[in-house]
Amino acid sequence: MPYTPGETAERLGVSIDTIRYYEKIGLLHGIQRTSAGRRVFSDDDLSRLGLLRCLRDSGMPIARLRRFAELLRLGDEGAEQRTALLEEHDREIDARVDQLRLEQKRVREKIAWYRSVSS
Is the pTM of this model over 0.90? Predict the structure, then answer.
């Protein structure tokens, strides 16, 4: 099913500017256009955009997103490298979560301390 840029943005919860930016920096390729030159997105495009957005929201840097998009274009040839890239990103997420848990522990200790002195 074809989607307009506005429909695509709405379905993904992003702005049209984000979609334009992703296309400009090379994360999107092969987007179909109407005879009037307007972009038309397919279900596959939405799926790819959704994954890229997930990776970006989880802290993947743009440079690595570009690399991931390049590997997507390779199809099966890039599968092993895509997997390795995602595994590396997953480890980085784990490290950030661990760090956040430590920081949360300190915040909770401070909350407990303030409660104890104000009682």
Answer: no
Per the CB < 8 A criterion, the answer to whether 19 and 8 are in contact is yes
Give the angle 42-12-48 at the CA atoms, nearest 5°.
50
72-83, pLDDT tens digit by residue?
Answer: 999 999 999 999
Strands (E), 17-113: 32-33, 39-40
DSSP states of 38-51: -EEB-HHHHHHHHH
Q: Which neighbouring-strand residues pair with 3?
A: 41
C-beta of residue 32 within 8 angstroms of C-beta of residue 40: yes
- The backbone torsions φ and ψ at residue 12, rounded to the nearest 5 degrees and listed phi first, read -95, -10
pLDDT at 69 over 90: yes
Confidence of residue 30 (pLDDT cuts 50, 70, 90): confident
Distance separating alpha carbons of residues 27 and 62, to the nearest angstrom: 9
